[in-house]
Every structure is written in C-alpha cells, then in structure tokens.
Design brief:
- One of its GO terms (molecular function) is transmembrane transporter activity.
- This is ABC transporter permease.
- This protein is mostly helical.
- It has one domain: ABC transporter involved in vitamin B12 uptake, BtuC (Orthogonal Bundle).
- The protein contains 14 helices and no strands.
C-alpha cells in the first residue's frame, strides 16, 4: 500500500507515464512503422557511447538552470529570469575567454566566476524590486530576459563578432579558457563535476542551515515567517542572488565546455526548460539530477527518432506540454491522496 508521504513521487511518475502513452499513441497514428519508431525513441539514446554522451551533455545546462529555478520556486518566487541570466553570463564568460590571456586552470575559473557574479547581480534586481516594492517577479524577470538578450546580442555584433567568419559568431576563445573533456569519445566536460558539487551544496544549504530553513519558511508562508522574526526581504534577495549565481555559472560553463566561439543568436531556452526540470524535481536539489537526465533523454530520443524515422522531433513538445499541464494541476490525483490520508488517520 502506498503511504501519503510517497504521493508526490507516485504522482510525478503517473504524469510521465501518461505523457509517454499519449506520445506513443500519436506515433502510432502518424508513423508507417510505429513499433520501430517507438523503439528508436526509447532505446536509441543508449545505443552508443556517443549517444549517451549527448544525453549527459544536454543534461548539464538543464541541471544548472533547474537547480537555480528550484531554489526560487522553493521560496515561492515564480521567477523565470534564469533564461536571460544564462545567456548574458555566457556573453561575459566569452569576452574573457577571447580577450584575456591567463595560464593553466586560471582562465576558465576567472571566466566562470565573472559570469556567475554578473548573473547574481542581474538576478538580484527583480529580487530587490519584489522585496522592497512587491513588484511581480514573473513580469520583471521576463522583461529582463528580453533586455539581457538585446544587450548580449549587441555586444556579440559590435564587440565580439569575428568579421572573417561566415556567420554571426564571436572570435575564437583562447584554448586555455576551454573546459577539459573528462570522458574520451564524448563532449562531456568538467562542468558535470561542477554542477554535481553545486547540487550537493544546495541540498546542504536548503536542509542543513539556518538560511535554508528561513528560505523554506518564507516560501511556505511569507507572512508567518515575517511574524516569526525572519527578515523575509533579505531572504528574497538572497535566493535571487544564489539563483542568479548558479544560472550565470551554467551559461559560462556551457559556452566554455561545448563551444569554441560564442554563437547564440537567440535565447538558448535552457532557463525556461529549468522551470520544467524544477517542477519535475518538486524543487528538491538532488532530484534535479534525475529530472534533467530524463528531459535530456527524451529530447535526444526525439532527435534520433526524427533522423531515423518518419516522425518529427516536434513531437517532444507534446510530451513536455502534457507534463507541465498535469504537474501544475493541483487537483490531479488529489482525491487519491485524500483517501490515503483518511485511511491512515483511521489506522492511527
């Protein structure tokens, strides 16, 4: 018998299964060979070392942004500014990777720290507006995404662009700025180690420190936390600083680990994807790992399916939409949870 404390795990699993079943039904309707197509979608990402590497490579930025957004959501801050911070911090790290010359491991460290600090400062602006004037953090963060994208694109076009290249890309990074690959035959880089360490530290911060407790209490009931003596305004600013630092580090790590030039002429989408990762993880830092890997897995599976079968990769958007709808629907399976709670109450 399932206990109520396992309800959210069961609910998330049910959401994923429902989304996959709907995807399989769509494949069966549009594909000439649905069994083969479903097999490609489910198993091809594990078919080679390179494909497994692709899954992990895609999961790294999702872990960064998923962790950043999960901290914000845990504080009940519906902030989606990780998208703009991720992009702009990548621009900052790229500028240092191009124009600075530092030896050894110092070059990527300085570039990543610069991007992270800039990310924290930028993310703090919506936090201050929320803490001091109760400005809607969703609106301000979405506005900042467009502002940061516009400024970043301007810097790319007029400060970093390589006029000799046949595309809108920056000059090449100095080789000393690039992150090392840690698994031969793949592009998996040291950013994987960095994000895993960050996740463990975030878990410790959230559940083992006074500041983490205040963050969780502020998210649960800001008025109660304030009446209990907690300085909720400082908590809100702190969580925005932390989230911006993590998202900024993610953008910096991604450009230095996966590219030799800065070439994002549009927002990469990882910040908004981070919200989906956080929702699947139920804002638990450790669960971000599995959520990011799952999302990366189905995306790589969809990409391979599009290349090897007659079903387009856009099918993955349906899975994501169903997951978002059901995860965000508070009433989904709530009747079952109520039945479990009543049964446990009678047995107690």
């Amino acid at each position: 018998m399932f206990k109520s404390k396992y309800f959210e795990t069961f609910r998330t699993t049910a959401v994923i299964l429902i989304a996959l079943v709907i995807a399989f039904l769509i494949i069966a309707l549009v594909s000439d060979n649905p069994v083969k197509t479903i097999g490609i979608f489910l198993f091809e990402p594990l078919n080679s070392k390179g494909h497994i590497g692709n899954v992990i490579e895609m999961a790294i930025p999702l872990m960064f942004t998923g962790l950043a957004v999960s901290l914000l959501f845990r504080a009940n801050m519906f902030n989606l500014g990780a998208e703009g911070v991720f992009y702009f911090s990548g621009v900052v790290a790229s500028a240092i990777a191009i124009h600075w010359s530092l030896g050894g491991f110092l070059h990527p460290v300085v570039a990543i720290l610069a991007g992270s600090i800039v990310g924290a400062i930028l993310s703090a602006i919506p936090g201050i507006l929320k803490a001091k004037w109760n400005a809607n953090e969703l609106v301000t963060s979405l506005m900042f995404n467009n502002i940061l994208f516009g400024i970043g694109l301007y810097l790319l076009n007029y400060q970093l662009r390589d006029a000799k290249a046949f595309a809108n890309v920056s000059f090449k990074f100095e080789k000393t700025a690039l992150l090392d690959k840690i698994i031969p035959g793949t592009r998996i880089h040291t950013g994987l180690i960095i994000v895993l360490v960050l996740i463990v530290l975030a878990h410790f911060f959230l559940y083992k420190t006074k500041w983490g407790y205040e963050l969780r209490m502020t998210g649960a009931n800001r008025s109660f936390a304030r009446y209990s003596g907690m300085k909720t305004a400082k908590v809100i600013i702190l969580v925005h600083l932390l989230a911006g630092f993590i998202a900024g580090m993610g953008g910096s790590v991604e450009v230095l680990g996966m590219y030799t030039r800065f070439q994002w002429t549009a927002l990469p989408g990882y910040g908004l994807d981070g919200a989906l990762v956080a929702m699947l993880a139920k804002n638990n830092p450790l669960s971000v790992i599995g959520s990011a890997l799952f999302l990366a897995y189905i995306r790589i599976g969809a990409d391979l399916m599009a290349r090897l079968s007659d079903v387009p990769a856009e099918m993955i958007s349906i899975i994501q939409a169903v997951i978002i709808l059901l995860i965000s629907a508070e009433q989904f399976l709530k009747f079952w949870k109520n039945r479990m709670l009543l049964k446990e109450a009678r047995e107690a």
